[in-house]
């Protein structure tokens, strides 16, 4: 694919989310997903905490814990559920999900490990260019495989593996605009 001619971006330094229970977050991300906890901070003036986990490849996943943070609102601040199990849209400006890149040869093993750890995982999804964008069987047009699951706070996570290199031919859709949106009315 093309190179960035504006900035030398090397990936993500970190993506930061908000946790309701930092201990439970550490238990899940380090204990279940095996991500090493690499930095912890108590924020000044009792504002909370900020913890960082190694997400691999030099990238980090971080969490804030704020003592007075409002609860998330499923369907607004995050998807209501995971793909394959219900509604998974979320509000503009929200974080819909985080997809971790995993090796294709470990894909099935990792799904089984999560299930053995008691994590509810969604169905295997073979993403292709068909009208439904999901293939029921593997074929040469499947470009990525994935499955979804949620952390203890309902953050939607995905394990995904690319099955082929993407090319300029994969960029062929005209971006939609704000004028084409039909926002849902909250409370309706």
Automatic annotation (TrEMBL):
VOC domain mapped to chain residues: 11-162
UniProt key word Ubl conjugation: no
One example GO MF annotation: dioxygenase activity
InterPro entries for this protein: Glyas_Bleomycin-R_OHBP_Dase, Glyas_Fos-R_dOase_dom, GlyoxalaseI/FosfomycinResist, VOC_core
Pfam families: Glyoxalase
Stored CDD domains: VOC
Top-level division of the source organism's lineage: Bacteria
Keyword terms: Dioxygenase, Lyase, Oxidoreductase
Protein name from the UniProt record: Catechol 2,3-dioxygenase-like lactoylglutathione lyase family enzyme
Source organism: Xylanimonas ulmi
High-level lineage: Bacteria, Bacillati, Actinomycetota, Actinomycetes, Micrococcales
């Amino acid at each position: 694919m093309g190179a960035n001619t504006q900035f030398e971006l090397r990936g993500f330094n970190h993506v930061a989310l908000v946790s309701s229970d930092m201990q439970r977050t550490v238990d899940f991300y380090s204990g279940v997903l095996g991500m090493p906890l690499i930095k912890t901070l108590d924020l000044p003036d009792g504002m909370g905490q900020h913890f960082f986990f190694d997400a691999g490849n030099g990238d980090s996943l971080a969490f804030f814990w704020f003592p007075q943070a409002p609860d998330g609102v499923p369907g607004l601040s995050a998807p209501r559920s995971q793909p394959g199990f219900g509604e998974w849209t979320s509000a503009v400006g929200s974080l819909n999900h985080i997809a971790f890149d995993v090796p294709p040869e470990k894909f099935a093993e990792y799904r089984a490990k999560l299930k053995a750890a008691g994590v509810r995982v969604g169905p295997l999804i073979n993403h292709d260019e068909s009208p439904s964008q999901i293939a029921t069987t593997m074929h040469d047009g499947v470009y990525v495989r994935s499955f979804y699951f949620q952390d203890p706070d309902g953050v939607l996570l995905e394990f995904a593996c690319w099955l082929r290199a993407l090319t300029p031919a994969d960029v062929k859709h005209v971006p939609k605009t704000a004028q084409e949106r039909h926002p849902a009315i909250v409370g309706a």
